[in-house]
Amino acid sequence: MTNLRVLVVGAGFAGAVIARECAEAGHAVHVIDRRPHIGGNAHDTVNSHGERIHIYGPHLLHGERDSVAIRWLSRFTDWVPYEHRVRALLADGRTTPLPVNRTTLEDVFGVALESEEEAKALLASQATPLQPTNTDEVFLSNVGPRLADLFFRPYTRKMWGVCPTELEAAVGARLPVRSNRDDRYFTDSFQAMPKDGFTALFARIFDHPAIEVTLGEAYGEEHDRHYDHVFLSLPIDEYFRFRHGRLPYRSIRFESDQMPVDQAATVINYTDTGVYTRCTQWDLIPNSGRRTDGQHTITREIPCDASENNNECYYPVRNRQSLALYDRYRTLAAAEPNKTFIGRCGLFRYIDMVPCVTIHLQLAARFLAGEPLPRAA
Ligand SMILES: Cc1cc2nc3c(=O)[nH]c(=O)nc-3n(C[C@H](O)[C@H](O)[C@H](O)COP(=O)(O)OP(=O)(O)OC[C@H]3O[C@@H](n4cnc5c(N)ncnc54)[C@H](O)[C@@H]3O)c2cc1C
Questions:
Q1: What residue segments make up the domains of the chain, in order of their start?
Q2: For 251, which of 24, 242, 306, 335 could close a Cys bridge (C-beta 3.0–4.6 Å)?
Q3: pTM of structure
Q4: What pairing do the DSSP bridges indicate for beta strands 229-232 and 5-9?
Q5: What phi and psi values does residue 88 have, to the nearest 5 degrees?
Q6: To test the ligand 1 pocket, which listed residue (41, 54, 205, 353) has its Cβ within 8 A of the most ligand atoms?
């Protein structure tokens, strides 16, 4: 393949992987992002107190130690080991581990469970035997109504803005329930934070003589004629000017505050029916500094529809209607020459950071091998 001029729209993980791989293969890459910073939603910054804040919500990196994606990322950063823990705030002010594990069951039911078998028996006594067809039924079949009402139903309603009965079963199936005492949020073999933060990691990925990055520049059709191929991590419906209607996304508004004491875990989930879902204490993530005035910056999250938050599209709401709508946009995308939709909003799919790297390394390899690419996966 001769040297190409490649435009990458979006300086998040999807765009960064494509940009670096194309540059290393000898192509000239221009990355644009309409935001004033690199890193997409993983962007972080150090505040005036020395605390590292992730401005679009906490991003915890986890994957398999020997995976291609972790090896690739490790070229651009050293790591600080970090196993993330989350606790749920109960009505009486106590906190208990999430995901639900043996300790959580003891806290809620006020019993001592001597073994995994006892924990499993307790869970089985609570669960409703049924074949789940929606998220609410997943909760019922996994943990039964009492734990569903405590940990899952109100949180899910706040998070997704609909009753769990209206969500496909796959959403609820992502929430594990354990009978052991493992209180880590993730169980992957590699859990760490980039030593100097995500923004420094992105700066090193983009630090290549064949990559030019322009920030504060939105994509427009006028860009097309300057490039041989365009990778787009913008929302696919936005690209087609919402011709068939808007794809639904949930978003989050953030409220920061300070606290004089440490909270019980980096993230506290609120189980009540109020507006907040969770609260992050930033200096408990080990690549953050701590303040010298004894205070700790915290950020609470209020989920909302993207339309209520300047169309900041965070979580694709995938259901039968939205997937049918996405299919119509994919059909339109198939007719666009030399363009490939990438990333969370191009593919209309929530993707964690490590899988995002994996998917886009594979996509880059196909592009560089001259293989035909899907316009949108
Ligand atoms: C609240 C939240 C928390 C998360 N927590 C975790 C976590 O703990 N662990 C984990 O592994 N993953 C987490 N993720 C997922 C992670 O953010 C994604 O894997 C990552 O964002 C995917 O990168 P991306 O490049 O697809 O999208 P993004 O990071 O969103 O990047 C897309 C970029 O494209 C730019 N763009 C869009 N339209 C245009 C346009 N028209 N012109 C120019 N630029 C444009 C945007 O400004 C943006 O910077 C979280 C996601 C969210 C929303």
A1: 5-78+195-244+317-368, 86-173
A2: 306
A3: 0.96
A4: parallel
A5: -100, 135
A6: 41
CA separation for the pair 43, 297 (Å, rounded): 17
Rounded to the nearest angstrom, the distance between the alpha carbon of 132 and the centre of ligand 1 is 31
| Calpha distance 357→348 (Å, rounded) | 16
Element (H, E) at 215: strand 211-215
Q: For residues 78 and 108, give the distance between their C-alpha atoms in angstroms, rounded to a whole number.
A: 40
Residue nearest to atom 2 of ligand 1 (CA): 57
Distance CA 354, CA 375 (A): 22
Q: Is the distance from CB of 27 to CB of 4 less than 8 angstroms?
A: yes
d(CA 366, CA 1) in angstroms, rounded, equals: 12
Handedness of CA 308, 311, 313, 316 (dihedral sign): positive
Q: Give residue 105 CA to ligand 1 midpoint distance, Å.
A: 35
Residues 171, 160: contact at Cβ < 8 Å?
yes
Instruction: Tell me which of 3.40.50.970, 3.30.40.10, 3.40.50.720, 3.50.30.80 is the CATH number of domain 5-78+195-244+317-368.
Output: 3.40.50.720
CA 62 to chain centre: 11
Q: What is the pLDDT along the chain (377 residues), one digit of tens a residue?
A: 679 999 999 999 999 999 999 999 999 999 999 999 999 999 999 999 999 999 999 999 999 999 999 999 999 999 999 999 999 999 899 999 999 999 999 999 999 999 999 999 999 999 999 999 999 999 999 999 999 999 999 999 999 999 999 888 988 888 889 999 999 999 999 999 999 999 999 999 999 999 999 999 999 999 999 999 999 999 999 999 999 999 999 999 999 999 999 999 999 999 898 999 999 999 999 999 999 999 999 999 999 999 999 999 999 998 889 999 999 999 999 999 899 999 999 999 999 999 999 999 999 999 999 988 876 65
Here the tokens at position 64 are: 């398999």
Torsion sign (Cα): 76, 80, 85, 89: negative
- State the Cα–Cα distance between residues 254 and 230, nearest whole angstrom: 33
Q: Which of 312, 240, 222, 313 is nearest to 7 (CA)?
A: 222
Q: Compute the distance from residue 295 Cα to the ligand 1 centre, in Å.
A: 30
**Cα-to-centroid distance, 12 and ligand 1 (Å):** 6
